[in-house]
Fold these 3 entries.
Entry 1:
Amino acid sequence: MLSAIKQSQWLLAIAALLFVGQAFSHGMSEAEKQAIIDGGNLRYIWIGATHMLSGYDHLAFVFGIIFFLTKFREIVKYITAFTIGHSITLIIATFNAVQVNYFLVDAVIALSVCYIAFHNLDGFKKWLNIKAPNMMAMIFGLGLIHGLGLSTRLQQLPLSEDNLLMNIISFNVGIEIGQISALTIMLILIAAFRKSHLFKSFSKAANTFLIIAGGYLFLMQMHGYEHVTNAGEFVSNTEPAQQEKDFNAAQQSDWKDIITIRIPARSDKEYKLHLDKGATFEYLWYTSGTELFFDLHGEPKGDTSGYFKTFKKATSSHDRGGLTTIFAGTHGWYWKNNTQSPVDITLKTKGEYQRPDSDKVMQQAEPLATPSPTTHDSIDSL
């Protein structure tokens, strides 16, 4: 008896762990972003696996699918339907740069957790007095939505244009590795506990918990969506307002040069300044809101090895700062646009530099965009 109770407590704790932590389940850390920027396809596999293992809404859905399945053939059938579903949208949506607000996608995914638990409790028959929808069709359809959530998050990272499909496939392979690993542990634990006479009570408690947790996640995702769409209504302190004020003040500053750069869809560009050693300059650049991967870096004068020094690298819709050079040479930005639409960048600079395109600026509306060299391995090595 005591042994069975302890087993029940352990399984409930494991189920709870699926929902403990951050409320927004698909977020990738800056360390993960940096890793996927610097690595190749093997790194995409690793990021995919770790992302699935930390994606507790996906794991909760899989947990609900297998909860009452006892035959290996049935488990394979339903998990395969889910895998095919999320693989289709992950690959197609990412390859075609189809993006949906990730808070809304995650809200629907949270509801899918509620659905699978409600089905496990036989809620359609008990409380709605209707026949439950076809389980296979629903799992496949909900898998499509889960894949859209994975794709939306993956597209927030810089992806290689030349190896885009392999990057996506590698990430998906990692997702499946993570899913299989988690599934194996779930099956072992459930199979061991299924023999207990407390399993029926535990199953009711666990699935009720999934419904409550899924509902909580849904509300959290919708709250996040409200923050994104109505950001001005949620300013709770002066810091964000002060940051916006400082940014606006920087836009009005006495800049030496104001330059417009257009980056075509699914493309990249660089812009460089010539500076002597010890020279300083300040800068501000911004888009209309579209986030771009950027790399602020320098290349020593006369170097033919392809070496460059990165000073700042991130994904953002704007950046401002300054730099005192440690060597003479070219210094500037690399931008990567992963969206389906061209993006315009406004770049403002001042300081001790020379513009390589200064003669062209007076003649062209878009004077400064130059193709990025193949030696820029922070992207080309992907």
Note: Confidence is low (pLDDT under 50) at residues 1-28, 231-241, 359-382.
Entry 2:
Amino acid sequence: MKYRTEVETYRITYSVPIPEKIYNLRTKYPFPFMSVGHSFLVPRAKEQSIRSCARDYGKTHDMKFTCRVAPGGIRVWRIA
């Protein structure tokens, strides 16, 4: 089946497999390298940033993190 647009003609195909999603491992924080129970410390000034990054990374990669105030800053643990 073909459809004509003003610029080009596109062919619609069926049964083309979707390739695996590739995630960019460039990250400010070491989330990709953490196993359950691992943690790291960030300065207190970055509290809101690290909480948001941990939540977003966890949702995207099926992981869970928790952040707590600790001596010297905010500590982030991978919990699942």
Note: The chain is about 20% helix and 30% strand.
Entry 3:
Amino acid sequence: MQLSRQAQYAIRTALDLALHPQGRRADIAARQGIPPSLMARVIAALSRTGLVRTYRGVGGGVRLARRPEAVTLGEVVAAVEGPLAINLCVYWGDCPCRQPCPVRAVFARTEGAVARELAVTVGDLARQWREIREPRSSRIERPAIRRTIHMKGGKRT
């Protein structure tokens, strides 16, 4: 099992849009190393499924249709790959194998585990990306503000 190159590009596009709320296709392609010829297909697939919106004109470009925290990695992958189906026998009502089938049960559990992992949101991934790119040691630490209250004869001074 392997994600297609188009699915990988769709993931990188969604992550880029979470980090840069609006972008032009050419800018996203350049930042993410996506060939411009494939960028149009990726944007079209994400747009068809309602994950991104495209805008024409001078201020045009591409943006996520929902908040990054409301878009899952599974939705992005499904936009270009179709629904997750490790083995179609999990869905078939007319599987020729004798039921209950232990193989079918394994695939059903595997598919469930993958679906749970793909439930991570693009917003979560963007936050993790920022944390990786901006280590704690380089973050600006603001000193805690301390307020000292001086008391004199039971009254504040």
Note: Residues 23 and 62 are 5 Å apart (CA to CA).
